[in-house]
Design a protein that fits this description.
The chain contains no helices and ten strands. With 118 residues, it is mainly beta.
């Protein structure tokens, strides 16, 4: 059974940092691109960042330079380091087994709430 479990969300002030984790029970984890998405209240889910099987990373323009994605294939875990957080980053953050296009992932985590106070 495939599971993606996010953790690390919480409440932080503007300018603060959080590190999200996505732990995957997934055969051949190394072969998957893993993406982070977010959904703010009243808005559509959007892709935030991606890391491919060979470690190539990419970011939405809104988070470029502030967020860093990484993976540990021994631990089957992907991380999202979020720095210089803004109130506009407030959302539920999800990890999934593909990137940027919400129609593509076969598997999703349950999400973790990130709230940035002004």
């Amino acid at each position: 059974q495939v599971q993606l479990v996010e953790s690390g969300g919480g409440l932080v002030q503007t300018g603060g940092s959080l590190r999200l984790s996505c732990a995957a029970s997934l055969s051949f984890f190394d072969d998957y691109a893993i993406g982070w998405f977010r959904q703010a209240p009243g808005k559509e889910r959007e892709g935030v960042s991606c890391i491919t099987s060979d470690g190539t990373t990419s970011y939405a323009d809104s988070v470029k330079g502030r967020f860093t994605i990484s993976r540990d294939n021994v631990k089957n875990t992907v991380y999202l380091q979020m720095d210089a957080l803004k109130p506009g980053d407030t959302a539920v953050y999800y990890c999934a087994t593909d990137c940027f296009d919400v129609r593509r992932p076969a598997y999703w985590g349950q999400g973790t709430q990130v709230t940035v106070s002004s």
